[in-house]
Structure formats: structure tokens, C-alpha cells
Design a protein that fits this description.
With 375 residues, the protein is of the alpha+beta class. The chain has helices spanning 4-42, 53-59, 70-87, 94-118, 125-146, 153-177, 183-188, 191-194, 220-235, 257-269, 273-281, 288-297, 314-328, 354-358, 361-374, and strands at residues 64-65, 68-69, 200-202, 209-215, 239-245, 336-340, 347-350. The termini are far apart.
Length: 375
């Protein structure tokens, strides 16, 4: 019997660890999916390190299924997995049910990751985290089916509830802390500060709605929204789009974004900014040679390398001015939009909730008025 004692202790420790992980991992999934669900529900900024990849994924048509955000299904699935983890000690089939659910969830996660990587051309850290969590649950369930967890049901349930509460509070705090702009600074700016006369723009200058976009030519979300913005402007009267530079060369894959911004400013000096933008946004993962090539394709015989190191240069100064305003506003993601409408405070938003902002009654009435005037 003495020789069996260490084995029982080892088995008990292993059982306790599996039981602990069984309630911890779904709670992590709840935190991830609740964060994505809350940002989707409120149109908030998705924390993603400023790359814009998360926003590109969230704004994609692939983020919806049967009319609901995919994150909602994830939140429901993780809550079910947490419940099954609690029931694992009192219901013999709970672990098998969890195995089936985590298997389906892992398959869905891998499909969504493949879509984001190969169709959307963006990498969402939250989606990767969710996939790792779901696959970890699947592995744990596979082990637990063969070696059932002899759980203390009430203790495990209390632990699960505590994890769930902490996960939800954490998600709320993350979403609440994701401030898009500094509101005090935004209130202090005039329309000329946000949309100076020399800024590149499209649309009538007397349009009732001025849509200021802070953008980066290397940003996948900016590239994704660019075509849809052009389509919107071609079918909608009353909106003037103003482009402001916000290159972020410190982000992986964006190293040449400052170079590209200066190239576009050189194109703008010859009235060819939007031709440059069309080609730049149509080039995935652009590098400095790509921007030089595009500059030549739009008929500008120049290179940013001759200007970028001179802060007094006209093109470089324009980009740096836009960057200074973006930093003053405490922006940390591209694209960031600021909707300016008469008699209303400027409204900041992202590509995820831009459409919702433009359809607000106090804004859509200006669009309706502009549409009637063009008839």
C-alpha cells in the first residue's frame, strides 16, 4: 500500500490540474470573445497594437454569420464549455460533450484564421489567441475523456464562476480603456485644424459633412475601406473626404509607410495624389521600391529618398504636420475617422462603425438634404 501512495498522490495532483485548467481555459476564451463582442456591439476600438489588422478582420464580411458577429457565437460557445467543465464532476457525458464542442470550435477557429490570413490578408491577435485557447481545450478534453476528472463539483463551480466574472470584468475594462482620441484635444480643434486647405480631399468643399481620415498606405484595414469609401462617395452627395497622413513605420509590415506618405505628398504637388493612392492601396505589403515605382507610374519623376531626411522640405513637412496632429489627438490605430457636421461636436470612429455613424438621424438628414438638392 505504501508503494501505491505516491501514485495516488500523483494522480490526485494531475486530476486537480486538469480540473483547474478545465475552468480556466474557457474563462480565457470568454475574456477574448467578450472583448470582441463588446467592441462590435459598441463600435469601439479593438486593441491590436495599432496595426489595423484586427479592425480589418472585424470589419470584413467574414466576421458575420447568419446576421450576427462571429464573436457572439464564440462567446456562447465558451460559456457552454465553462458550464460543461462544471458539470464534468457530476455528469459522465459532460466531458464527451465538451470534447465535441471544442472540436467544432477548433475547426471553426482554424477556418477563420485561414480566411483572415489568405482572404482578408490580415492577422488578428485576438483570433489567434482564441484559436490557441480552443485547441488547448480540445487537447485537455481528449485527455480527460480517457482519464476522467474526479472533481469536487461545488469547489470547481465556484472557481468557474470566479473566473467568468473576472473574465467579463477584464473584457469591459479593455473595451472601456480603448479610447480612440483625446476628447479634450478634439474639442479644442477647429475644422481648419482637422481639414486644412492644402490637405488632399475629394468632394465639394461646401459639403455639409467633412470626413477626415487618418490613414497609412501600408495598413490592411485602410486598404480594405478605401474601395468602399470611393464607392460611397460616388453614390452619395454631401460628403467631403479629407486625407491626413498617419504612417506607422514602427509596426511590422509598415516599415516603409513614412516613405510612401512622402511619395504621395510629392504626387500631390502635381495634382496626382488620388492616382497615387489608388495604386498604393492596390499593392499588398508595399515597400519603398513599390512606392517609387508607383510615383513613376503616375507621371512624377522624383523619389522620396531625396526629401525624407529634410524636415524643411515641403512634402516631408506636410507628412510631419499630419503626424504631429495624430499624436496630439493620441491616435493609435488606422484608419481613424473624424466626422465633422455643422452644429455637432466632431465624432471619432473607426472603419468598423463608420457606417453606423453616418446613418445616425442627426447626420443622415444632411445627406438627405444634399441628395434632394442634386435632383
Amino acid at each position: 500500500m505504501a508503494k501505491d501512495e505516491p501514485m495516488r498522490q500523483s494522480g490526485g495532483a494531475s486530476s486537480w490540474i486538469r480540473g483547474f485548467l478545465a475552468v480556466l481555459l474557457p474563462a480565457i476564451g470568454v475574456f477574448i470573445s467578450a472583448t470582441l463582442s463588446l467592441t462590435h456591439a459598441h463600435g469601439s476600438l479593438i486593441p491590436c497594437g495599432g496595426s489595423g489588422d484586427c479592425a480589418a478582420v472585424a470589419d470584413s464580411a467574414y466576421s458575420m454569420f447568419l446576421g450576427l458577429p462571429v464573436a457572439y457565437y464564440g462567446l456562447f460557445g465558451y460559456c457552454c464549455l465553462e458550464l460543461l467543465a462544471v458539470l464534468g464532476g457530476v455528469w459522465s457525458r459532460a466531458r464527451m460533450a465538451s470534447l465535441v464542442l471544442s472540436g467544432l470550435g477548433s475547426l471553426a477557429s482554424l477556418v477563420l484564421l485561414s480566411v483572415s490570413l489568405f482572404l482578408i490578408d490580415a492577422t488578428c491577435k485576438w483570433c489567434i489567441g482564441s484559436a490557441i485557447t480552443m485547441i488547448s481545450i480540445l487537447i485537455l478534453d481528449s485527455l480527460s475523456v480517457r482519464h476522467p476528472v474526479s472533481a469536487r463539483a461545488l469547489r470547481q463551480a465556484a472557481l468557474a464562476v470566479a473566473f467568468m466574472v473576472l473574465a467579463y470584468i477584464g473584457a469591459v475594462r479593455v473595451v472601456a480603456g480603448a479610447v480612440l482620441v483625446d476628447p479634450a484635444v478634439l474639442r479644442s480643434l477647429s475644422i481648419l485644424d482637422l481639414a486644412p486647405t492644402d490637405a488632399d480631399s475629394v468632394g465639394a468643399e461646401n459639403s455639409p459633412i467633412t470626413l477626415v481620415e487618418f490613414s497609412d498606405f501600408a495598413c490592411p484595414a485602410c486598404r480594405d475601406v478605401y474601395g468602399r469609401l470611393n464607392k460611397l462617395l460616388s453614390h452619395t452627395s454631401g460628403i467631403r473626404l479629407v486625407f491626413r497622413h498617419f504612417p506607422q513605420p514602427h509596426i511590422g509590415g509598415h516599415e516603409a509607410s513614412q516613405y510612401g506618405a512622402v511619395c504621395s505628398a510629392l504626387a500631390a504637388q502635381q495634382g496626382r495624389f488620388w492616382q497615387f493612392a489608388d495604386k498604393a492601396y492596390g499593392t499588398p505589403h508595399p515597400q519603398s521600391p513599390d512606392y517609387d515605382r508607383i510615383l513613376g507610374e503616375v507621371g512624377v519623376a522624383d523619389q522620396a529618398s531625396k526629401h525624407i531626411d529634410d524636415p524643411s522640405d515641403r512634402a516631408t513637412a506636410k507628412v510631419n504636420r499630419d503626424l504631429a496632429l495624430a499624436h496630439r489627438l493620441a491616435l493609435n490605430v488606422t484608419p481613424t475617422f473624424i466626422v465633422c457636421v455643422p452644429d455637432l461636436a466632431p465624432i471619432p470612429c473607426t472603419n468598423v462603425n463608420l457606417a453606423d455613424v453616418l446613418t445616425r438621424p442627426e447626420i443622415s438628414r444632411y445627406l438627405k438634404s444634399a441628395r434632394n438638392q442634386t435632383k
